[in-house]
């Protein structure tokens, strides 16, 4: 028997290409007209997804889209520092929804004292976009860089990743 499981692009990229097996943590979303499954590679991603679902106005598709744009650490920093501009770059998330996410999740995540690394990531994203890469390509490459790197190091790492494709 097979099941349709919705996953983020990050999960798809790590899945075996041919007839391989993958272990996923599953969230079952029950509605009156459907039963949807959402899969995650680790428990931390599942827990963050479920935390996003508790924000009014955020459904499973939006929560999955949020998880697909950046690492959990980056999302935690954006929410912890109250950076709604980072969250509004997600398709379907407007300013009011981003503010609601920050207000409702900041206490659960804890406020971040260092907003510098988030600024480094945003600066690196803008630099990669100015070099001609799409926002999705740049975000995917930045997700694979070291979170402790400064802006220049993030750009260099991302360019190596993008150049290897």
Question: Strands across the major sheet, in which order?
Answer: 1-3-2
Q: Which class best fits the helix and strand makeup?
A: mainly alpha
Number of domains: 2
- The number of distinct β-strands equals 3
Q: Helicity range of the residues?
A: 55-70%
The average pLDDT value, as a whole number, equals 83
The description of the largest β-sheet is: 3 strands, mixed
Topology:
Elements: E1 5-6, H1 9-14, E2 25-30, E3 35-40, H2 43-53, H3 60-69, H4 72-81, H5 84-87, H6 95-109, H7 116-130, H8 135-143, H9 151-163
Helix pairs in contact: 2-3, 4-6, 7-8, 7-9, 8-9
Question: Describe it for me?
Answer:
This protein has nine helices and three strands, in the order E-H-E-E-H-H-H-H-H-H-H-H. It has 165 residues and is mainly alpha-helical. The chain folds into two domains: 5-109, DNA polymerase, domain 1; 116-163, Helicase, Ruva Protein, domain 3 (Orthogonal Bundle). The protein has a three-stranded mixed β-sheet with strand order 1-3-2. Strand 2 and strand 3 (35-40) form a beta hairpin. Helix 4 (72-81) crosses helix 6 (95-109) and helix 8 crosses helix 9. The longest helix has 15 residues, at 95-109. The radius of gyration is 16 Å and the shape is globular. The model has no long low-confidence stretch (mean pLDDT 83).
Key descriptive features of the protein:
3 strands, 9 helices, 165 residues, 2 domains, three-stranded mixed β-sheet, DNA polymerase, domain 1, Helicase, Ruva Protein, domain 3, mainly alpha, globular
Characterize this entry briefly.
The chain is mainly alpha-helical. Helix content is 56%, strand content 8%. It folds into two domains: 5-109, DNA polymerase, domain 1 (Orthogonal Bundle); 116-163, Helicase, Ruva Protein, domain 3 (Orthogonal Bundle), CATH 1.10.8.
């Amino acid at each position: 028997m097979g099941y349709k499981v919705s996953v983020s692009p990050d999960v798809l990229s790590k899945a075996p290409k041919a007839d391989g097996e993958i272990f996923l943590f599953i969230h079952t979303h029950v509605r009156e007209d459907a039963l949807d499954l959402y899969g995650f590679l680790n428990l931390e991603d599942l827990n963050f997804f479920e935390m996003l679902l508790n924000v009014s106005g955020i459904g499973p598709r939006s929560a999955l889209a949020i998880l697909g744009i950046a690492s959990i650490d980056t999302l935690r920093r954006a929410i912890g520092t109250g950076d709604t501009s980072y969250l509004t770059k997600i398709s379907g998330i407007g300013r009011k929804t981003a503010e609601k996410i920050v207000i409702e999740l900041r206490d659960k995540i804890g406020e971040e004292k260092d907003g510098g690394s988030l600024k480094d990531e945003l600066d690196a994203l803008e630099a990669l976009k100015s070099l001609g890469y799409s926002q999705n390509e740049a975000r995917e490459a930045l997700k694979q860089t070291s979170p402790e790197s400064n802006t220049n190091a993030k750009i260099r790492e991302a360019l190596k990743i993008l150049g290897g494709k």
